[in-house]
Fold each of these.
Amino acid sequence: MAPLSEQPDWLYLLRDYHETFGTGSSGGSDAIRSHRRRVREALNRVVQADPPILGRQPADKPVTAHLGRALDLAADGPLATMAATLRRLTGQFTWEWGYERVPRTLAQRYAYCELAGPNGPVHAERIVLGLVLLAPGTTYPQHSHTEIEESYVSLAGAWSENDAAVYAPGSLIFNKPQQAHRITVGERAPCLLAYAWLGPPARLAAPGMTFGR
């Protein structure tokens, strides 16, 4: 298992995340500003530790048929550099559902991919970075994360959380621990979100994901 420093594209990807959380406005929110700082600090610790790149078995899900289109759209957006790095690494991604029971319809329209965290490929204990891919017209049911604070950064597609607003590529949405949220996606394009989780190592290793009622 080669270390991070010997895998340039994985190292570039962490730097892309760091830049994404280091630039742009926090919208005047102290909570978001603090979250962004903690994500950057956790990323710095990962890079300094130079962890091994774990050899996870690549795996697709039905929704990954939309990944090429999502990356095409992201290439014209504000996170184009990250999109290009992701495209070079797609053959190494392990796409999952993460729930013990996934509704049949959602199983065709959703998957996530952990990029850094307790389950790798980049090993980290105090942060999880990953991607969520949603097909056009998808509703991702209400859910929450115990002890985990979460942010989504949009790479491609138009989407809404809790029917509050429409978010475009480049937007960052922050969810506090236990905050219930529901995502809907526009009808014309897939949605690709980069996410960051911060929380206790034991919880990040086994988040116990469940849907709300």
Note: The longest strand covers residues 110-117.
Amino acid sequence: MTVAPVPVPARFLAILGLLWMGASTTAAATVHPGQSELVREVAQETGKSPQALNALLDGAKMQQGILDAISRPAEAKPWKDYRPIFLTDQRISDGIVFYREHRALLEQIGKQYGVAPQYIVAIVGVETSYGRNTGRYKVLDALVTLGLYYPPRAKFFREQLKELLSLPDNHLAGPIDTLTGSYAGAQGWGQFMPSSIRDFGVDADHDGRIDLSNSLPDIFASVANYFVKHGWVDGGPVAARAQPDAAARPITVKDAAPQWPLEQLEAWGYAPLQRLSPGEAASLQTLEGPNGPEYWFTFRNFYVITRYNRSPLYAMAVDQLAQAIAAGADRAGAAR
């Protein structure tokens, strides 16, 4: 049976239309948990428009893929499996080519900051394969997801989201809602978090903008500045192999901060395999290598690299990649 339509007054149809449009607009906007409080804080502290901040956050999406990615970091692997990820023949040869191509700028910045250029190259090599892979996630989505939907690290990532929303426009490579980066919200060739852009970003090309995605002077100087501000020692050692004797005292360390004079570690049964200053402050890292435990003396500069990424595996990979790049660049230069 067909039911005949009932005529509806035109004025009533218009009212229904307005209600539908309002409901559609409300449904399209995503209000994230804690969004109102976050917007209020940023607006009060920076003077930015609450409407503009809400519009940015309304457009951000919680992404399950980001939550999945942070649950399986590479740093959870043992050294024997971690090292081959970053110390590949391709990454080393690409680093040598990159170093040679930008040698003048790298050495200028290295001299200015007192940071050996190969370590700047190694950071961008480990982080983004020399700028080729800076991340596919929207930075805003990443920080909203981890700051507002990931309780284990919510405090840290909410602070980073707040910093992102608070940064002046000239501290970013583009509008906030266009920035892409890692699943953790790091961006640019050196993968800086928003607080690191604020504290360590450098406008080295003097164009009025800190651009860590498109300006090599800004990228190199910001990495070097990060190291220096965390206590990098120009010309200081990073890591050196140690050989334990049969009676070596077991040592457990909570982080990579130097804790003892090298001579104390030697007295406990760990011999250096190269010439080192006995009074140098050091720590000891024990890593699971392919042929059993590896013992490493680590120094102040190693600790500084762990300020970039807290994993000692990361710092070891950066150090070994830097050494391989420097050696390869020197050989290439000598062969010319």
Note: Confidence is low (pLDDT under 50) at residues 1-28.
Amino acid sequence: MPNPVRPAAFVLAAALTLIGCGAQVESPGDRESGSAAAGGHYPVTVENCGEKKTYDKAPQRVVTNDVGITEIMFALGLEDHMAGYVMPDDKGDLTSVPWKDGYERTTWLSKGTINKELVLDARADLVFAGWNYGFNEGEGFTPAELRRVGIDSYLLSESCRNGQGKARGVMAPLDALYTDLRNLGRIFDVEDRAGTLIASFREEVAAAQAKAAKGSDRPRVFLYDDGRDKPFTSGAYAGPHDIITKAGGDHIMKDLEDSWTTVGWETVIDRDPEVIVINNYGDTSSGQKLRFLKSYKPLAGVSAIKNDRIVVLDYVDLVESPRNPAAISSLAAELRDLTS
């Protein structure tokens, strides 16, 4: 899903102070790497969505938007650096997640839409969000707007725009996850923790791939997010692409050079998916989505519908998040069971 979440004197003071993280955008002639100063960790420089940014110290009051982004922070053990998180309450059961303690230790700032007033009230020094994961020109909430009031931004790498209008995606989805873990590890001086996570995730993905179907045995898979007139789905740069392909599926929308986007039902029917994965979130339940797919007459001849090969994964499994590797293992098992 591309859009997962639905005081003048103070603003002036914030704009003058550039509080907290001390991030500076690098010009082409500036320092190319964040070498440690005088034996210390800082300053450090990372590249985020094509922009080099230098941090003189770790941000202390981060506001995150949406569940996957929030759990990236939790997976790195960075709760003490957070002012809180924003997300609607349709993201599944948060009491049994791997990072339950993170939710218990961090403030749920809003179940609505993130905005400038909210992050100012939270005294944020950095907002970790993404294009259509909180940042949106239509809502007037952008990194440029935050910069004007002295608040830095870190963009979710899955959401990086690629220069083709507002299309998103500049790297493979799992590479986006590893890039963000690596960058945040440097920004917050937890590089060892980030490296350990990345290594464990790579190992889990490799183990799932070793058991997954290959070549012509791979079933054709379609990701259904929502939509009746036109389905909303994943292109090559959103999480489901890597989740599907590394689990042993052939992602039928792999030629779409975008992250989350809309296609026509005609394209889905023509590519005849053998398995459909439903994204479970939002006001429309996975059960309602399933009933629609089974009752929509143009889909009656599609292999996945005829053979009742439907898989449900939660939203946080499918957007960029530290749950992606486990989702690959889970889907790989489902695909083996459905196609054996």
Note: The CA atoms of residues 121 and 340 lie 55 Å apart.
